[in-house]
Amino acid sequence: MAEEILEMKSIIKDFPGVRALDHVNFTLEKGEILALVGENGAGKSTLMKVLSGVWPYPTYEGDIYLDDQLVRFDNTREAEEAGIGIIHQELNLLPDLSVAENIFLDRHPLNKFGGIKWEQLYDNAAKMLSRLNMNIDPRIELGDLTVGKQQMVEIAKALSLDTRILVFDEPTSALTESEINELFTVINELRASGVSIIYISHKMEEIKEIADSVVVLRDGSTIGDKIKIDQVTLDEIITRMVGRDINDLFPNHDFDRGEKTLEVKNISVPDPFNPEKKLVDDVSFSAYKGEILGISGLMGAGRTELVNAIFGVYGKKSEGEVYLNGEKLKIKAPADAINNGIALVTEDRKELGLLLDKNLVMNMTLPSIKKFSSKLAMDNHAERAVTEKYVNELNIKTPGLDVFVEKLSGGNQQKVVIGKWLITDSDVLILDEPTRGIDVGAKTEVYRLMNQLVKQGVTVIMISSELPEIMGMSDRIVVMSEGKKTAELDRSEADQETIMKYATGNKGVE
Amino acid sequence: MKKFIKNNGTFIALIFLIIILSFLSPSFLSSRNLTNLVRQVTINGIIAVGMTMVILLAGIDLSVGSVVGLSAVTVTLLMQAGFGMWLAILITLVGIGGIIGFFNGFMSAKFDIHPFIITLGVMTIARGLSLVLTQGVSVPVTNSTFASIGSGYIAKLPSLIILVVALALGIWAVFKTSIEIKNGEKVRNKAKLTGGIILSLVGFVSGFLIFIGYQGIPIPVAIFVVIVMIGIYTLQKTRFGRKLYAIGGNEKVAWLSGINILKSKTMVFVITGVLSAASGILLASRLNGASPNLGDGFELDAIASVIIGGTSFMGGVGTITGTVIGAIIIGVINNGMSLLGINTFYQMIVKGFIIILAVMIDVLNRRETA
Ligand SMILES: Nc1ncnc2c1ncn2[C@@H]1O[C@H](COP(=O)(O)OP(=O)(O)OP(=O)(O)O)[C@@H](O)[C@H]1O
Ligand SMILES: [Mg+2]
């Protein structure tokens, strides 16, 4: 039996209207990779925030023992000094500062006048990064890195603090396939050097691959004890999580292709930083009533930019034509797209999807505000009623309709974004990574909903980086690579290898 | 209780201020002084209503003081030139307030320039225009109807009727808004109900003592109250108000949700321009003329009222009710210090500190809830 380095005993954490953690017990061993799983709003992030000092002592009840010593942190700083690092669900870095400054934040090496010794700072940062086998220039601005690289910087930052326990809260939801592999290599090396890791994820295959053991949270309580990963099947874990069996992750829909609805021709989007390059290069496709069109590709392939161009995000800067039911649309801004019955569930919920310090009602009815108001006044009863309906339908876990959406768990926030666009009753619904950060149970709910919409005659277009999701749900798949459309596949001809082949740039025969 | 104090901090501060001043200066509570005080508040308050909307959008309008001056000058000169009073007022509201506001809003929204820059420029331009139009000297106007807009009163009996009607409306509104929906059922919020009724009664009694005790309701105060009512309704109830909170909350999200940012922003600056022009007209009426430097520094009082009233500089959070309380606080401080014989130079210093204090409270509050 390895030595236990962390024990959390009977942790309780209350928020107004909800008990987020209810007598949670939790242990971690040296060099263990422990997966913490559970539905959206189960309390995973909250438990980790208690551990890492985000919620200081008297705001929770219960005891935390590090190496059998009772610890009570007043702030994250103290937790860091005790060797606890956390990579938050929403990244926590400063995009305008250099990589090195981000790593050492307020722990710069200083000369005797109090000035920063820049060379030493960059050297130290380079050393930290090379420990991770990362080839990142510590001088460049963090904002210029991909999300995956930014995450590596967060890890480097944690390691620079002699971290013994490192928490990853849904680290891979924004990473590319190869970045995920890099991350796993790093995690395994960390374990080998004796660091213990707590790993939160909704991706079950990942957990099977990386974790030693798993703990399940449901409604703020642990379900069963910690189990070794090889003594349990994924289905058993899922059953523990959601309290019922999910036998059909990708529910079938009888696809019955109707007439052509959306047709886009020759869409191009220039790269704002490099006029020679195009983010989207002359892409055309059609979508039909009664089908789900998947758009696949690696991250950075231009999928988000493609749908943004359709939605009018770039205004005059993008080229191409959009037809709906045979009619050419003039879309100069998102408002025009919405008025024509096109909805876009954006990828980045925090920056693009939600008014974080506004309540659910205001968020959900924003794009369809006209439906809930006359020239003179908002119809508050109607908008509350419809919000309530979608809160129930999407099973959004919230203490009420008047809470600010920033208080919801990440997955429930995602559901609010989806709900907000469902309320518009659009003919074409475009979803950009719609299931990012939501739990398995909720995923099937979203899939069911997509099927239901398709049945009602809505044209659904889904971008996804998860191949099983693309293959499980789409009737047809457009594959993109480096801004170009490389393939358009039927459900029957789409398998993992074929999609990957086109996604990595094999143009094949059109 | 703690929450109550936090949510109503400025209001409680105002009550304290009034109590302290009434001890320090016996004439503070006289009907005459209070009537004057309220009338002074209206000039700044009308501008501050518009400024609230601008700051809700995380913007700023530095040109309001110059618009006050230019409007006062314009309306006076138009009447001197023989235009009828109403026509002169209309031309000033639309031609000065409306057009300057449109320019401010359109330029900053269309070309994505911070309104600080645009309105700073316009502030100087409008002031220059006033000086050019008047050749740098005061211009008088003699028109008793015009004068009565700024300095007249509504007679006591109609004033009383207005107060009674207002009380009835207030209580009716409290009854309507204290119903909340919980778990699909309508529940009456008792605390909100009693609080609202007490507030309505206090308002009625003080209105009675102040105005009926003196000469009736000053006409500019009546105009101000109507503007405030419309402002509150616009922000709380209309689609336009909802859009402003959304844009202030996160402009990008609002835009992606189909809101026309250019239109809303331009509209807000037009409203502020027109309200500033109205304020300038009231001032010209009260002074029977205008001087080109009229309204100098008014932007500071308006911004201070908004910030003291709890509107966040970051946008998206704030109410007109708060701004009105902020404007009254500024008015009480000005009035109180004058009564106590404090030099206006010191008054400026005190006001400056109060603004900083208000912003500190805003920042600290936010940190606590974050
Ligand atoms: N700051 C907060 N204020 C109020 N309630 C909160 C706050 N943070 C979390 N909650 C509530 O606590 C509960 C647990 O949230 P938590 O973020 O821990 O869930 P989670 O398991 O991480 O979910 P997800 O998988 O969606 O990220 C939720 O009901 C959430 O609404
Ligand atoms: Mg979470």
UniProtKB/TrEMBL annotation, chain A:
The keyword Coiled coil does not apply. GO terms for cellular component: plasma membrane. Keywords: ATP-binding, Cell membrane, Membrane, Nucleotide-binding, Repeat, Sugar transport, Translocase, Transport. It is found in: Cell inner membrane; Cell membrane. Residues 6-244, 262-507 form the ABC transporter domain. SUPFAM superfamilies: P-loop containing nucleoside triphosphate hydrolases (SSF52540). It is a peripheral membrane protein. GO terms for molecular function: ATP binding; ATP hydrolysis activity. CDD domains: ABC_Carb_Monos_I, ABC_Carb_Monos_II. PROSITE patterns: ABC_TRANSPORTER_1, ABC_TRANSPORTER_2. The keyword Plastid does not apply. GO terms for biological process: monosaccharide transmembrane transport. Transmembrane segments: none annotated. This is Xylose ABC transporter ATP-binding protein. It comes from Halanaerobium saccharolyticum. The lineage of its organism: Bacteria, Bacillati, Bacillota, Clostridia, Halanaerobiales.
Automatic annotation (TrEMBL), chain B:
Keywords: Cell membrane, Membrane, Transmembrane, Transmembrane helix. GO terms for cellular component: plasma membrane. The chain crosses the membrane at residues 12-29, 41-63, 83-103, 115-133, 153-175, 196-213, 219-235, 267-287, 307-333, 345-364. It is a multi-pass membrane protein. CDD domains: TM_PBP1_transp_AraH_like (cd06579). It comes from the Bacteria. InterPro entries: ABC_transp_permease. Pfam families: BPD_transp_2. Its main location: membrane. The keyword Calcium does not apply. GO terms for molecular function: transmembrane transporter activity. It is found in: Cell membrane. PANTHER family: ABC TRANSPORTER PERMEASE PROTEIN YPHD-RELATED-RELATED. This is D-xylose transport system permease protein. It comes from Halanaerobium saccharolyticum.
